[in-house]
Amino acid sequence: MTDSSEPTNNEKNHKNRFRSVGPGIVAGSSGNDAGGIATYSAIGAGYGYKLLWLMLISIPMLVAVHDMCARIASTTKKGIGSMIRKRYGARVALVLVVALFIANVAVVAANVAGMSVALELITSVNYKLFIIPLALAVWFLVVRGSYAKVEKVLIALSLGLLAYVIVAFISNPSLIDLIIGTLVPHIELTGAFFFTSVAMIGATVSPYIYYYYTSAELEAAKSDEEMDESRFGAQVGAVWCGVVAYFIILTSAAVLFTSGIHDISTAKEAALALKPLAGDFAFSLFAIGLFAASMIATAVLPIATAYGITETFGMESGVSKKLDKAKMFYSVFTVSLALGAGLILIGLDPIQTMIISMVISGILTPIIVYILMKMCNDKEVLGNYTNGKIVNIVGWLTVVISALLVIAMITSFIAPF
Questions:
Q1: Helix H segments across 147-264?
Q2: Residues 98, 101, 103, CA angle at the centre, nearest 5°?
Q3: Of 226, 208, 227, 239, which Cα lies nearest the Cα of 64?
Q4: What is the set of domains in the chain, with CATH numbers?
Q5: Is 264 within 8 Å of 37 (Cβ atoms)?
Q6: Consecutive H or E run containing 262
Q7: Mutual orientation of helices 52-76 and 207-219 as an angle, nearest 10°?
Q8: CB 1: neighbour CB atoms within 10 A?
Q9: Cα–Cα distance between 262 and 47 in angstroms, integer?
Q10: Cβ(264)–Cβ(273) under 8 Å?
Q11: Is 175 exposed, middle or buried (0-12, 13-18, 19+ CB in 10 A)?
Q12: How far is CA 35 from CA 85, 133, 157, 408, in A?
């Protein structure tokens, strides 16, 4: 009897494991948004291959964070907002979620601009004409769809990020410089270097991902028996995010830096700079990737904000909930999306909002990862699923490295090196 049922169980396990990557892929893809693409492009153009090592060490950091979020969601059946309020009080939870809201609205603005600009690059139609239609499309997708439907659309869009991997391969990078930049740490004692490094950490190990990922896991109906599948999905999503970011830096280093173009402020500038140097194909692929990444982030960021605020105040939340059952959740989602789109429509500089949001995210990173580490080493919270040695080492290194970079950045502004 046992032998005959074994293949069926294996098939079920493989199916569960495949389904489990959904929240991780969506969370990881949202990290490579318009702000992230601009940040990574600027790093490649400004520093060439020299900071690939920092991106490489960011991948295990993100894997560890995703893994902790998966275990918190699967074990406690609560999101990060709820757990922070429960363990550290309403004041701490409120301060963090207010900072998250400010950062997220700025990132939403950058991404509404990002997906609109991507269509401008493809169609030559002014990007402002796309802002309202695209924002409404995202609103209808989330408010009128179930979590499963939203996740399927966002996963399909995430395939567009493969464009950056393809562009990197056709950009003919220097293999020697690539290996050196990846394996040999390069550090400059300048304010610009530390500012860039904090922005990179903020773009990669983004705090909003923690709020989104834990709650998305709950909406995907994970159970304790599927802990391995949940952790697998988290790790796949984190690696996917890091690999795409690595290739964006690589492309900018191979094409822009080597051609003497060192000053890139936006993803649009990166795409336009690529066109004469790498050809129309690379330009089109870059624009497609920008649209896909920005669309995903435009949906995920307001959702993450809504999760964070409603969980912090103990209110009903969830994309799968009906509108009348989770009014505050959908109200926060709508306000976040509307504010982001509105800021771009009134002429706010998307470059400045992007920079501010990345730095705020970078400053929040060591704080929230520290809280995650405390919770994930507390047996009262996770029981037998507390951190192992490897996750603890990587997690505490994430706290220390990100905190030191923030301190160095602040110090460089007060007393320049």
A1: 147-158, 162-170, 175-183, 191-204, 207-219, 227-255
A2: 110
A3: 239
A4: 23-414 (1.20.1740.10)
A5: no
A6: none
A7: 40
A8: 5
A9: 8
A10: yes
A11: exposed
A12: 29, 21, 17, 22
**Angstrom distance (rounded) from CA 110 to CA 36:** 10
The burial of 275, by beta-carbon neighbours within 10 Å (0-12 exposed, 13-18 middle, 19 or more buried), is given as middle
Cβ atoms 115, 298 nearer than 8 A: yes
Are 173 and 248 in contact by the 8 Å Cβ rule? The answer is: no
Q: What is the DSSP string of 15-60?
A: HHHHHHHHHHHHHHHHHSSHHHHHHHHHHHHHHTTTTHHHHHHHHH
Residue 346: DSSP 8-state = T
Q: What are the average pLDDT values for consecutive 10-residue runs of the chain, which has 417 residues? A: 46 53 72 76 86 88 87 84 84 84 83 86 86 91 78 79 79 87 86 78 76 77 58 79 87 82 65 66 77 85 88 81 83 91 80 68 83 89 87 91 83 68
Buried b / exposed e along 242-266 (16+ C-beta atoms within 10 A): bbbbbbbbbbbbbbbbbeebeebbb
